[in-house]
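retry 2 of 3: previous attempt timed out while embedding adenosine-5'-triphosphate. Reduced batch size to 1 and resubmitted. Inputs unchanged:
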Amino acid sequence: MSDILEVKDLVVSYGKIKAVKGISFTVGEGEVVSLIGTNGAGKTTTLRTISGLLRPTSGSIRFRGQDLTKVAPHDIVSLGLAHSPEGRRIFPKLSVEENLMLGAFSRKDKGIRADLDAAFELFPILQERRAQPAGTFSGGEQQMLAMGRAMMSKPQLLMLDEPSMGLSPLMMKRIMTTVTTLQEQGTTILLVEQNAQAALKRATKGYVLEVGTIVLSGTGSELLASDDVRKAYLGED
Ligand SMILES: Nc1ncnc2c1ncn2[C@@H]1O[C@H](COP(=O)(O)OP(=O)(O)OP(=O)(O)O)[C@@H](O)[C@H]1O
Ligand SMILES: [Mg+2]
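retry 2 succeeded.
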């Protein structure tokens, strides 16, 4: 499996504080790679740096071989990398459809209409409520919208930051099933989650991040079976 994303010795700091302390990981074409870790581990910082919203202190980020560390965020989207951010960040006053169309801002091709239909097919409620202000959506609906919006840039790699956060078990399942659907449709996924069970179950590969350092890695099932993961992340004795 060829790597679509290669992060090497990445260090990211906020002022003098290092939030990410030299991590390396890879995402292969077609994989679902899960990055798990507790609050403050550096998961969001890592995704924001890959997206170009933060600049690393040192280290490299390669997407299909191209270094991203000096590329502007909107150009990174154009290269085929989309980010569904922590907290969803939808635009509450804009309609559902307008929010979706914002995901296609970098595109000029004729496939946008078809991808809007694909997003509606993925989450039919987005079509039913397409004219509704997005701010009136529930948390789970906003998550679907955030994922649909990210898909509107037609990404090769989709990064999801805690999509299950604050959702009911049923809605969480719906979102996680969609992750598998998107993978089956050919999108590679980098999934950040505190919910280790849900994230590792679907992962081809996983990394455990603790205060800015990767402490464990393996296949999803290896990590789920690991005593350290079970104790620290699955609440087992
Ligand atoms: N804008 C910022 N300024 C200063 N420190 C920050 C900033 N954003 C994050 N940090 C710090 O960087 C560290 C990593 O934060 P980050 O948000 O990446 O963690 P996380 O793994 O996403 O956590 P969570 O699961 O709570 O979302 C934390 O110690 C956090 O306090
Ligand atoms: Mg976070």
